[in-house]
Write a structure and sequence with these properties.
The chain is of the alpha+beta class. Helices cover about 55% and strands about 15% of the residues. The strands form three sheets. Strands 6-8-9-11-10 form a five-stranded mixed β-sheet. It has a four-stranded antiparallel β-sheet with strand order 1-4-3-2. A two-stranded antiparallel ribbon has the order 5-7.
């Protein structure tokens, strides 16, 4: 695990799209919540101001009306005088305790000032949560009158929750669109990078869109062209050198064959034979990068693999066909045959025999495996042996180490035809090389 990954909080999503989406949604949600809180606070303050400014006048009028009405008619008027936050009771109310809030004390004082001292106004709280208090009056005929106040904001309108849900849905949709527009160019860039082949003939990015995206696309396309030129020059140099070496090696071999028989002559011919093999492998490696230029054809894979195995069996090689996937596939026949031939030769060389099998994976890709019972490869070198001229043997013995190009040619050729080569140690000993083709 890298130091950067170790510093990344576990709760933070790994993809940039998820992080951007999280930041935008959380930010907008916090902003919306703050706006909603401020709106409710402003509504609370406005309602409080309206209540303080108008309630004392309304109460003074109501108390005066009830004071002038006959005692028998007062009960009929209580429903007419009732409001959302308070109501009137024709009794002495409930016993209470001193008022607990500044708002209740201020309101009761305003009511007392408005109705005058003749009504002997006093107030008491009867509940803390929710807050509720009573203002007591004494009418002209000595009848007690109680005003019970329950402070509360106006109820939320029934359409407000629906508006909030629509607002949240709009925020989520806009955030998703913004993140998609911001991260889609990065996804295309990653796909184009994954699709690059040794010949750099992968898809080119569209050089349009926002300025930053267009600049990145132009830079990537330019980089891909430079890599293509570099690879072509490198492979061209390798092919040219390997090809040009064949002529002097042939002349040297002919001269060596004219020498008198002896140990030195045999050693010289053996060295020249090894040089010829190395030159041929170098040319094959240079040409393998262009395997994708072959036109794909539809093949019966069972017949193709049987033909490959039978060709080895005809010359006495221990090669068997264990299982087949069945059906047909669009493949580049010559390139695939070269890949499998290198893998079978490698299995026979180091394991003594080769077993070929094929199947379809969960994604529908064609998988062809060549397995042996040789010594296998250390786990930390499974990737390195696919590099050119890498050999496990420390010596340069041609009988064991080879030229170090067989697996490299197979890997590069598999990549050139759109596939991939993967090596793994086999259970019970040996190596299995799997070629996956889309």
């Amino acid at each position: 695990m890298s130091a950067q990954a170790a510093r990344t909080p576990r709760w933070l999503p790994r993809s940039m799209a998820s992080r951007l989406y999280l930041i935008i949604v959380v930010g907008l949600a916090l902003a919306t919540g703050l706006s909603l809180a401020l709106a409710f606070y402003e509504r609370f303050e406005s309602a409080t101001a309206v209540m303080l400014n108008t309630v004392e006048h309304d109460v003074a009028t109501s108390v005066a009306v009830l004071n002038r009405l006959p005692a028998a008619e007062r009960a009929d008027w209580l429903g007419r005088l009732e409001r959302d936050n308070y109501r009137y009771l024709l009794d002495a109310g409930k016993p209470g305790f001193p008022l607990i809030s500044q708002r209740s004390r201020e309101l009761s004082q305003r009511i007392a000032n408005e109705v005058g001292p003749a009504y002997r106004v006093h107030a008491e709280a009867i509940s803390k949560v929710p807050e509720r208090y009573q203002v007591h009056f004494t009418l002209g005929d000595g009848t007690p009158l109680t005003l019970e106040v329950t402070p509360a904001l106006k109820p939320v309108q029934p359409w407000l929750p629906l508006v909030l849900v629509l607002q949240l849905a709009t925020v989520l949709l806009c955030a998703w669109l913004a993140v998609r527009l911001a991260t889609r160019p990065l996804s295309r860039l990653a796909e184009a990078a994954e699709a690059m082949t040794p010949t750099a003939d992968g898809p080119r990015l569209h050089e349009d869109g926002p300025t930053e995206v267009a600049q990145a696309a132009v830079a990537f396309n330019t980089m891909q062209e430079r890599i293509a030129r570099h690879l072509k020059e490198r492979l061209h140099i390798l092919a040219s050198i390997s090809h040009d070496l064949q002529t002097p090696i042939t002349r040297m071999r002919l001269r060596a064959e004219g020498l008198a028989d002896g140990e030195e002559r045999d050693k010289l011919l053996g060295d020249l034979k090894a040089m010829e093999h190395l030159v041929r492998e170098g040319v094959a490696y240079a040409r393998s990068a262009h395997g994708g230029a072959e036109t794909p054809v539809r093949l019966d894979m069972d017949a193709f693999l049987e033909s490959l195995v039978f060709d080895y069996q005809d010359i006495g090689k221990p090669v068997t066909l264990e299982s087949v996937a069945g059906g047909t596939a669009m493949v580049r026949r010559q390139a695939l045959q070269r890949v499998l031939g290198n893998l079978v030769d490698n299995a026979i060389k180091y394991g003594g025999s080769a077993a070929v099998s094929s199947w379809r994976d969960a994604g529908g890709a064609l998988c062809i495996a060549v397995a042996d019972r040789g010594p296998g490869i250390p786990e930390d070198e499974l990737e390195q042996v696919l590099q050119p001229f890498y050999r496990l043997e420390a010596s340069r013995n041609r009988d064991t180490g080879g030229a170090g190009l067989g697996l490299a040619i197979a890997a590069q050729l598999a990549l050139a035809i759109g596939g991939a080569l993967k090596l793994a140690n086999r259970e019970g000993g040996g190596l299995v090389a799997t070629v996956s083709l889309p």
